[in-house]
Give the backbone structure.
Amino acid sequence: MSLLDRKLFRDLRALQSQALAVALVMACGLAMMIMTRSLMLSLETTRDTYYEQHRFAEVFARLKRAPNSARDELAAIPGVSRVQTGIAIQVTLDIPGLREPAVGLINSLPERGEQVLNQLHVRSGRLPAGRTTTGELAVGEAFAEAHGLKPGDHLSAVLNGAKVPFRLSGVVLSPEFVFEAPPGAALPDHKTYGIFWMPYKELATAFQLYGAFNNVSLTLAPGASERAVIAAVNRVLAPYGGRGAYGRIDHPSHRRVDDEIRVLQGLSVAFPLVFLSVAAFMTNSVMSRQIALQREQIAMLKACGFSNAQVGLHYFKFSFAIVAAGVLVGTLGGIFLGGRLVEMYHLFFRFPQLDFLLDVRVLVAAVGVSALAAFVGVAGAVHRAVRLPPAEAMRPEPPASYRPALVERLGISRWFSASFRMSLRNIQRRPIRSGLTCLALALATAILIVPNSFRDGIAYVIDFQWDIVQRQTVTLSLVEPGPARALSDFRHMPGVVWAEPFRFVPVELRAGPITRRLMLQGLPERGTLSRVIDGRPQQLTLPPRGIIMSAKLAAVMQIAPGDFVTARALEGREREITVPVVGLAEDFAGTAAYMERHALNRLLLEGDIINGAHVVVDHGRWNDFLDAVKRTPRIAGCIIKDSLREGFRKTTAESIGLLQKIYMVFATIVAFGIIYNSARISLSERSRELATLRVLGFSRGEVGAVLVGELVLLTLAALPLGLLLGSGFAKGILTAVNTETVRLPLVLTPANYAFAVLVVTVASALSALFAARKISEINLVSALKVLD
Amino acid sequence: MSAPAESNLSSHTAPQRGSEPVFHVRGLARIYGEGTAVVTALAGVDLDLYAGELIVLLGASGSGKSTLLNQLGGLDSPTHGTLLYRGENLAAFDEAALTRFRRDAVGFVFQAYNLIPSLTARENVALITEICRDPMAPEEALALVGLVDRMDHFPAQLSGGEQQRVAIARAIAKRPEVLLCDEPTGALDVRTGITVLDAIERINRDLGTLAVIITHNAILAEMADRVFTLSDGRIVTARTNAHRGAVRDLAW
């Protein structure tokens, strides 16, 4: 170790708490960046590998029924590589020990050979034996976990009105169901919705579909146009009740994974950059101070023959040492937190294996950015120091010149105490430094706003979605759309207090070149249970003509109220209708479109048809009600609102909650780091002044007040700015993570602001206290000495 | 009372004005460090200093004169010996009592002036007058050092001599009992030094303040009532001037 390096090492030790503060702030930014970027990489890599190895299809289609011969027509479409046809049917389940009725989507396994596409990954047990054995099912992992099901367990399913006992042969995963949510639902409910597989023959026979299929998956030949293939598939399937083919982008499971990656992307840039800029500023202020303190040492080194480059390198090493510490802590922190979040992703996404992959490119980039920031932060100060001729540098710096502060010229200065004036003039003498400190403090306040706005947004969504929009207890759906008289049957079920019908039609909405597939919901004109709410939030009345859609959907489709949109029904008769958009609804999970039910029935040229009803149930008769649901074969599904809410709390809310906590800790560290550092630098710069005051008879408290006065003024200026900036950050980040499947509203509460102000105030108070304690360490006798 | 062998006891301690001394110092020692690194900065000093006296402490660098001044000013505590201020034991003062002592009784003048750069001359003085019991107006204090017309200038706008006179105004505005000056002219040229010493002399004469000046410049001894020379932490010579020389006649 050279002697200069030894000096570096000792100087660093003397400066350890400040160096640590800077390194920690940098570590927070790096950890956040590494965590989010690596999670993106992990999800993307895992997804792509899984899709590739298990041959996830690229185009999907549902239809009513087509003979197996139609398969050859599909295979003959130019640009189609492989085709897999089969059956997928929704059935009611009876799970031992589960009071609520559950719904299963049963998919067929090929009669001969293996699946060509969407191959299953067997987690435990095996696939159903097929031709020789009957009564076996493979179950998706999420549902199996929610119910503690293992291979060998039993459950019953209602197949075409007949209750059939099954034995579970194995627990499996499918690339088609990485995210298992009921059709049309944005949120999973693994308790009441599961995915199953059984041999084609057994399933087809039960539903009189043998020799036919209702489900198609296919892959594209290299270079084929997805749009052209989808159009051709639709032409082939049209006579068989095709419900419109779609690509991966509209595939619900694929899209959910994509959206999660987009959320991470939104969090991975702006927020960490704020942290890293703050760290760069802190490095600059620490190093500038250090170099100013060592002015004479630099002169001495140069006088003794060290070159400018050697001296410059010495101070760069100083800041790089801080960067190195930040990088080390940040990388380890990012890896650790990323690992935790990956575990959390198992709640949502079912991959055979989801491992945390460190994104090395981002790590290298982040280290580069931090090192560059440190370099830029120090370059100016080093340059100034080495430029001075040694003889001049050895003399003490001339006294700083001051002027009366601007506010004093207003003639109100006689109200100010001397120490207040000192603070004002100090701030004004170095406007850039003061401005940057103020900005850093504002940033510290601002980054505290963001995580809590997430929390408040979640709370708002929970209230909004399940208290304001959805006020039913359960949603019952019929096996097949049927006449509205079913409504009176629902109303007569035990425990039912009120029921309102709905008609759900899968449609493809089109506005110009943009299309979206979703459930068009036909609801009562002004229902009391499932309501359409706008952003204010007030209930909207569904007009006899026209469509109301999610504000997000309108934004995506680039349409506004007054524009027209075309809806093509994807079931029943091929029918295309063009209706005006008459209003925008507020919602936060998925997107939706609404029409008055009778208007929808009329447009579809159908009678008074419903798919089911939203129902309010008397809690005293809850069990009677559930028993009745299970006894009614026409009821295909029963979605219990409270379980959805619970599911949301346990998954989405928990994941965002974890992120919120991580960000909160980071933001607090940064707030403390910035303020502590400012106080220390102020103490260092003014120690001689403060010692003089002590010698002149100021008490420690009075000197403390002089020291923190400047910080208090800057903090006071920074707080409102910080609240403003924080609101902007929150808005920016929420916009970045605003996807079609998940959104959070911007909710900024007084409590959120108050908390940010409190943390910054406490951080300031503690830093001030700490600095004030340091005042007693100032050597009073040193004030009497001449600086030389 | 044991007499130091190498000096004239009567000059150290003899009451000159028949009153109680402001400082009563006996066997004062200050030792820094431990073991092999022990440095004896003061090795047994006996002194009595009286109100209205102008005292000059001479000595080379390291002779202990600054240490002695720090002891008198309540900036440091003795290792051994007696240090009484107006009959009170300074060595036994706690932090708060020392702060009060410095605030009310002592005026400091430093070689490097130690003005607050962000305050004007007037404000630098007012800073102190705001916190003490019976101060004079800052303007009055500045008038005493001849700086009335430069009151609203910042330190950076004042010459060295002017800055030092502001420091003196700051020190005397509290009407201190004792004015302690550490090389007050050390950073100044002759002509400017004279104006500063003149200010100190005038304060001492007009207000009856005990003034203690430490310097390595023997010429200043002419202006003193009594002169002490320190070496190796002891007083080696003590002398009483029959007549104080006028500051204007000092020449170096």
